[in-house]
Amino acid sequence: MAIRNFIIRVLDYNYYHHAMENIVTEKKAEESHRQDSADLLIFIMLLTLTILTIWLFKHRRFRFLHETGLAMIYGVLVGVVLRYGIHVPRDISNATLSCPVNASPATLLINVSGKFYEYTLKGEINANEVDDVQDNEMLRKVTFDPEVFFNILLPPIIFHAGYSLKRRHFFRNMGSILAYAFLGTVISCFVIGLLMYGCVMLMKQVGQLDGDFFFTDCLFFGAIVSATDPVTVLAIFNELQVDVDLYALLFGESVLNDAVAVVLSSSIVAYQPQGDNSHTFEVMAMLKSFGMFLGVFSGSFALGVATGVFTFTKLRDFPLLETALFFLMSWSTFLLAEACGFTGVVAVLFCGITQAHYTFNNLSPDSQDRTKQLFELLNFLAENFIFSYMGLTLFTFQNHVFNPMFIVGAFVAVFLGRAANIYPLSFLLNLGRRNKIRSNFQHMMMFAGLRGAMTFALSIRDTATYARQMMFSTTLLVVFFTVWICGGGTTQMLSCQRIRYLSNPLLGNMLHRTALVGVDSDQDNSRRSTKHESAWLFRIWYNFDHNYLKPILTHSGPPLTATLPPCCGPLARILTSPQAYENECQLKDDDSDLILTDGDINLTYGDITVSTDASGAHTSSGPAFAGGATSDDLDRELTYGDHELVMRGTRLVLPMDDSEPPFTDPHHRLRM
Amino acid sequence: MAIRNFIIRVLDYNYYHHAMENIVTEKKAEESHRQDSADLLIFIMLLTLTILTIWLFKHRRFRFLHETGLAMIYGVLVGVVLRYGIHVPRDISNATLSCPVNASPATLLINVSGKFYEYTLKGEINANEVDDVQDNEMLRKVTFDPEVFFNILLPPIIFHAGYSLKRRHFFRNMGSILAYAFLGTVISCFVIGLLMYGCVMLMKQVGQLDGDFFFTDCLFFGAIVSATDPVTVLAIFNELQVDVDLYALLFGESVLNDAVAVVLSSSIVAYQPQGDNSHTFEVMAMLKSFGMFLGVFSGSFALGVATGVFTFTKLRDFPLLETALFFLMSWSTFLLAEACGFTGVVAVLFCGITQAHYTFNNLSPDSQDRTKQLFELLNFLAENFIFSYMGLTLFTFQNHVFNPMFIVGAFVAVFLGRAANIYPLSFLLNLGRRNKIRSNFQHMMMFAGLRGAMTFALSIRDTATYARQMMFSTTLLVVFFTVWICGGGTTQMLSCQRIRYLSNPLLGNMLHRTALVGVDSDQDNSRRSTKHESAWLFRIWYNFDHNYLKPILTHSGPPLTATLPPCCGPLARILTSPQAYENECQLKDDDSDLILTDGDINLTYGDITVSTDASGAHTSSGPAFAGGATSDDLDRELTYGDHELVMRGTRLVLPMDDSEPPFTDPHHRLRM
């Protein structure tokens, strides 16, 4: 047991007040509490400011800066003020004492004249920062525990992504999405890792490297910057109603590759060859890591799907209870996965997808609205919070290591890694796809590979070593660059790539509100005949899901007695919900693949109208659509969505420019 | 500077692994993270279990145990399991070292062979518990930082209470409510404080007291147990539609006296006579405390009202932004108040009341629903969480001091303190009230003085000294007793006091959903003629509010050009919202005192129907009501609420018993 030198430096603001010790302690606690409130207030104010500016932007239809980019800018500004603007001179006395102690424990018990105090390990402090500790007290205060991101802020974002996946388009492009997300992320990770390793070797030669940087570190960097997060791009797609398939590909890929990147990075961290030299290549350790990747991923997947499926809710009479239960089940999926050693983020993603597919149909209409709105709000707040915090850390983080060579290398590697993901895979996929991914789509996907919340959360999780600190600083720059430049240039890129979109954002916004996304481009009429053209895998799955899973797990779909062979009669009767019988007549072919069934079919119809209006050159869309649903279904949908259609019909008579629409509330202008 | 003996005991689970130190640290962190997830999962599971049981109770119309009582029971059960069921033997090595150090600082910097580690003070540990620290690791893990209650769980509860105050009845009974809340709480605090001081003196005589217990401690105890929280009772009132005035009195009192108790207790803590003997009586210090009470209360009040009023929202086109902004403003009120040294809870309460009164009217209908549902959900989760945590702490809290004599004394004191609040004040108030508070109402108010979340949060906030620990344990018992016994006996007490209610809970539930509360008792017809009979103070305020404040702050109400004298014309035109002009024709006498205006007027009308149906002896209600609103207003309201009325009309033909109503969904029964 090595007994080492042990120095205690006491940071005590009220050092000389020994009388009334309790009161002093209380005052100190109160003071620190006030400080905490003020710090939190900074973030709330940041968010409020962001919201107000977003509103202004939306109102003025300014589209070059998305809310996340904006949140980052405000974060940077506040970071600058905190760093350079505020200097609180503090009266700190340091007592340095030495006593023999062993390695840093997680908990310290200190006995001061009969009273025991407990101390917990907060973290390691950079040796050259120790003298600044008192100066940086304020800065360290606004620095969160990185686990906050993983346990509180990421889950709602990921869940919301899963919950709002446009499932029909997602499942139709499932093969491609899975290829981009799994193969693509792994390719990107290794390409970036290898390039960075080359860069690091070069830096070592030139003498630019001050610490260790192993190959596993490079791979880890590759994994974390492979998680794309095109939230900015998708928001603009949403508003401009860009092609649904492109949207599905980008969204599906980004959602899934977050999950892949998390598991990949933890597998890389777990790569520990045996023996003394812990950074050589070893097949066994690699296989172990690979096995771990598969195990963790499939475990999280299974867990998420299981909770999603088994969130049976029969509390239809009490929307509050129902919503609360729904919320708690999603959160407990995350916690359960973490407690089991799986990845909560992955579990919560698949839980979201499953819940949207099955559980959602069991909810009362009131609860459906409530849950959607709740997760939407949580997602919005968490996302903007992360992005403003990102901006803040650029100046308030204590251990930045900006290395120009590494940064340049990283930018090149990120670019090449994305290219090595998109272009070769698209080529291969196009061999099998009937509906090809055109080259302008490929360029757009390349361009839309922004890095966001997940990359940030992964890189800030561990900033203990020199390598990790350098990675974190570089990652921050990559995120800033992609969000501001790529995010801001989306509209330009769309025009440049000749991808069609509607330029009237108010209409887009209207569609967005009813959760409708995207207008088909003229060439793409495949989605109107989903059932005829799509992959056989999808068709098999769809039939199984529609005929067996849905009736068992939800109150919708045909009763099992109709879909199962007659010999299974009694079993079918037990498993079918009584509501399914009631609904039988109206649910003959209800394509409830989407959260908003009615809304989506409206969209489908609306789209056709839009396309016809816009180009005047649409012929086959009507019948093709009618092939997907029986005609009385269509009638029902039409009467349902009448109001919507009328509204949209009126809107589309307008020329597609940015002129002020007639029904905008005049007082918004007046009372500005 | 006193250098004292300093002992460090190291709790290190992986003590002998010095190789691969980083990996071990990482593994340790992962282990601790998993443990955290599992702990949190316990609470989520508790909540889920509570929700499922509540649903069962509501479904079966079992009314003797409210959800909060249930949450406590589950909490107690889990606490027992954690305490006695789980024993994790751990391999802990203790290193005890001595070095000279001064008083316990908030932050420790420890230098272990060149690496600096930062430690933060977690808290004091009871001297006789030190040896059990390793055993109790698990128990301490499920123990939250008490500030969590004040900063995260209480604000949504308090805000929701303020936001959902039935404002018309509240303002009509404002004088009485203020008297009970302010005078009553102070009386109760001092009565309990004096009685407890007597009890403590007696205990000292008998030799039952092991530590210090000063008069200020007794007063502090008085303050914390004076905060009533009749959430259980009110839920039952809601369901059974008990008299609206009784409801308003109880609800208003309990909401406001929480605020009073918080400020009162912090004033008592701040009572610090100068000189050596810090526990004698001193007029100056008391005046200072009193001044502090007034200052903090009015400061928080002003802050809350100010933010409530100035949350102008003009984001009507974007419900998500609007809801997010609304949420952030409420939270920032809390934080701002805390940062300024005021009381966040009080600020958030008045912010809620003001926002419901003014800002709510500016929201788009979509946002109105969203905010209501959001705060309802947050309130529900926070409340049930606090109550299950309460149950849990009965067994998991480490420093319980159960002193039988103190406990008995406390129960007697709490009873007498409540009596000294209700009966004398009611007598005095009845001298001035036209609509007397009858003696059965007084008994009911006496009985409904439960203690809940606020009392718990205040008592767990500081459990450092012997006196505080004894208070905490006793408070816990008081809360348990009142919630289970008084809460569970509400229905019996109502029957016993002959306070009328509807015994068909499904109807109550229906009314609850549309936010309607209470049926007038036959004798009480005063509320139908609000404007004629109510207090002059109320009338002046009402007119001022309706004619000037509402038009300035909201889009509703008459335009200022109509209410201000002609000379103020230009000013009036600037201040009036353009919408007010548009709405002028329809808002002639819109009594928008309540969140759900239409709902409430329906209720008023529905009540009359109910009363007529039930007793068949109602004559004057129709005309009296018509006096309150113009007849075409009434017409509009009636067409609006037609569906409601029809439903209720059907229901009321049924005999008032617990028979299964015909339209209950049959499959709930079948698929149980």
Automatic annotation (TrEMBL), chains A, B:
It is a multi-pass membrane protein. NCBIfam families: b_cpa1. This is Sodium/hydrogen exchanger. It holds the Pfam family Na_H_Exchanger. It is found in: Cell membrane; Recycling endosome membrane. The lineage of its organism: Eukaryota, Metazoa, Chordata, Craniata, Vertebrata. Keywords: Antiport, Cell membrane, Endosome, Ion transport, Membrane, Sodium, Sodium transport, Transmembrane, Transmembrane helix, Transport. InterPro entries: Cation/H_exchanger_CPA1, Cation/H_exchanger_TM, NaH_exchanger, NHE-6/7/9. Belongs to the monovalent cation:proton antiporter 1 (CPA1) transporter (TC 2.A.36) family. It comes from Dicentrarchus labrax (European seabass). Signal peptide: none annotated.
